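sry for the spam today, last one i promise. C-alpha cells for design, 477 residues
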C-alpha cells in the first residue's frame, strides 16, 4: 500500500473551489493586457476596461475547466524519459532564476557566469531524477539583445536532453523560439502532439495578470504548448494571513489564468502549479523554512487532484546561506511532506538563500532526499510473495534469514534502499578511513559526474541550422 498524506478533506477542497468561484465572479482579476481582456470578453466574462477588471461568471469557469487537456505527455529527446502527466509518477525540476553560485572550489558566493550555468545544466541532465529543465541561474555574462536570447535557447537544447520548461518572455521572441523548436524536434504537428517543451506563466499576487509575460504566452497560440500556471502569493504580504486563505487566493489566480488560456487556445494542456509561500514576519520576505510553506503546497497538490489537473509544486526548503546543519535539516524536513503529496513535478533542488544561490553539491543532496521520499511514498509492497510466512515457519525460533533465497532476492529488489551518499558502516571503519564529510563526498561525486557526462548530441545538420538562426538574430540586433 502506498503512503498517503492529506491536509484538506474532500469537503474542504470543494469549499475552496466554491469560495474561489465566488471571488472570481464578484471581485475578479486585474488584467493588464488589452488582448487578454478582449479574449475573455468574447468568452463571456464581464470586462471593465477603464479599471482593467475582468469578472468570471460561474459558467465561464466551468466551461473552461471542461476544455482543459488533463492527460498528456511531456516528451524528452532522451529515450525513456518522457513524463506522463497524471500518470502516478513524480520528477524533479531545478529551481530557477538565481543570480549567484556557491563556488565548489572556494566555498564562497559569487556572481553566476555561463560556465556555471553549463555545469548546473549538465549535472541536472545527468541525474535521472531530474526530468524537467529550468534556468537555475541567469549568467551575468549573457547579453540582453535578441541574439543573446536566441543563443541561450539553442544552448538549452544542446545541454539538456530531457523535458524543457522554458520559453519566450516577450512576444517578439516567439517566432525565433518556435523556429528553434522545429529545427530540434520536427514539424509543428510533431511539437503539438509530443510537447517537448512547456511554458510557465506567473500571475502577480494579489489578483493580477500582467501584460508582458502573458502576451508572450498568448502569442504561442496554435502550438498546443502546455502551460504551468504559477502564482506566488506570500501569506501575510501579497496574500491573506492564513494558510487556507492563501490556498484560496492561489487557486483563484490559477483558475483566472486558466480561463484566459482556454479562451485563447481551447484545450491547451494546463499544469496546476501555485507556489504558496509564507512571509517571514521579521523581514516581510519569504521564509523558505516555514512549515506552512510545505503544508500549503501539499494543499495545492490536492486541489490539482480535485480538478484532475497535473500538478507542479514548489516545497519549502531552508533559510540557510551555506551548506550546514541548518540547511540539511530544514531542507529535508520541509521538502519531504510536499514530495509525499506526490505532485507530477517537484521544483527546487540545488538552491540556497531564497533560491538566489545555486550549489552543485546541494543539487545532489536534494536529489538524495527525493530518492528517499520516493521510497516512503511507495510504502509497503503487500503482494502475496512478500509476506514470507512460510519462511518464518521454516526458519523457526532462534534461526536467521541471512542465507535464505528470499533474503538474497529481496536485497536485489526495491525492499532495500542503498543510499548513494554518506557513510553507513561502523565507527571503527569510519575512524580508520579518511573521514570524508558528506559535503566533500558530494563535491567529489559532482566532479566525477561532470567529467563523464556528455549531453545527447543534436546532430550536425541541426547544429548548422541553429548556428544560422543565431547568426540571423544577431544581425537584427
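last one done:
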Amino acid at each position: 500500500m502506498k503512503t498517503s498524506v492529506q491536509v484538506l478533506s474532500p469537503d474542504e477542497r470543494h469549499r475552496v473551489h466554491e469560495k474561489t468561484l465566488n471571488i472570481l465572479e464578484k471581485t475578479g482579476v486585474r488584467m493588464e493586457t488589452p488582448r487578454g481582456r478582449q479574449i475573455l470578453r468574447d468568452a463571456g466574462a464581464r470586462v471593465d476596461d477603464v479599471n482593467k477588471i475582468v469578472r468570471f461568471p460561474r459558467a465561464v469557469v466551468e466551461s473552461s475547466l471542461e476544455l482543459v487537456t488533463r492527460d498528456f505527455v511531456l516528451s524528452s529527446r532522451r529515450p525513456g524519459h518522457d513524463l506522463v502527466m497524471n500518470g502516478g509518477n513524480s520528477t524533479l525540476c531545478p529551481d530557477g532564476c538565481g543570480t549567484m553560485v556557491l563556488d565548489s572550489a572556494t566555498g564562497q558566493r559569487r556572481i553566476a557566469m555561463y560556465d556555471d550555468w553549463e555545469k548546473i545544466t549538465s549535472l541536472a541532465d545527468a541525474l535521472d531524477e531530474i526530468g524537467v529543465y529550468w534556468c537555475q541561474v541567469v549568467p551575468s555574462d549573457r547579453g540582453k539583445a535578441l541574439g543573446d536570447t536566441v543563443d541561450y535557447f539553442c544552448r538549452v537544447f544542446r545541454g539538456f536532453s530531457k523535458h524543457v520548461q522554458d520559453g519566450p518572455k516577450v512576444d517578439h521572441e516567439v517566432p525565433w523560439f518556435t523556429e528553434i523548436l522545429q529545427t530540434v524536434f520536427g514539424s509543428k504537428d510533431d511539437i503539438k502532439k509530443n510537447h517537448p517543451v512547456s511554458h510557465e506563466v506567473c500571475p502577480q499576487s494579489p489578483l493580477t495578470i500582467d501584460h508582458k509575460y502573458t502576451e508572450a504566452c498568448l502569442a504561442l497560440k496554435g502550438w498546443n504548448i502546455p502551460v504551468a500556471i504559477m502564482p506566488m502569493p506570500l501569506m501575510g504580504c501579497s496574500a491573506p494571513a492564513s494558510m487556507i486563505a492563501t490556498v484560496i487566493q492561489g487557486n483563484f489566480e490559477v483558475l483566472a489564468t486558466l480561463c484566459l488560456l482556454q479562451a485563447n487556445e481551447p484545450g491547451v494542456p494546463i499544469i496546476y502549479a501555485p507556489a504558496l509561500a509564507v512571509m517571514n514576519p521579521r523581514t516581510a520576505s519569504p521564509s523558505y523554512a516555514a512549515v506552512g510553506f510545505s503544508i500549503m503546497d501539499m494543499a495545492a497538490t490536492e486541489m490539482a487532484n480535485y480538478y484532475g489537473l497535473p500538478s507542479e509544486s514548489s516545497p519549502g526548503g531552508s533559510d540557510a546561506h551555506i551548506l550546514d546543519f541548518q540547511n540539511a535539516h530544514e531542507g529535508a524536513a520541509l521538502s519531504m511532506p510536499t514530495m509525499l503529496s506526490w505532485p507530477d513535478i517537484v521544483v527546487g533542488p540545488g538552491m540556497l538563500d531564497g533560491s538566489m544561490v545555486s550549489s552543485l553539491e546541494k543539487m545532489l543532496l536534494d536529489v538524495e532526499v527525493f530518492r528517499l521520499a520516493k521510497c516512503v511514498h511507495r510504502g509497503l509492497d503487500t503482494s502475496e510473495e512478500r509476506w514470507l510466512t512460510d519462511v518464518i515457519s521454516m526458519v523457526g525460533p532462534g534461526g536467521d534469514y541471512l542465507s535464505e533465497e528470499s533474503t538474497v532476492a529481496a536485497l536485489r529488489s526495491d525492499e532495500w534502499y542503498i543510499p548513494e551518499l554518506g557513510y553507513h558502516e561502523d565507527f571503527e571503519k569510519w575512524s580508520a578511513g579518511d573521514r570524508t564529510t558528506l559535503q566533500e563526498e558530494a563535491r567529489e561525486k559532482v566532479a566525477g559526474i561532470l567529467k563523464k557526462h556528455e549531453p545527447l548530441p543534436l546532430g550536425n545538420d541541426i547544429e548548422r541550422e541553429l548556428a544560422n538562426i543565431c547568426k540571423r538574430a544577431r544581425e537584427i540586433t
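DSSP finds 17 helices and 20 strands in the chain. ok im logging off now
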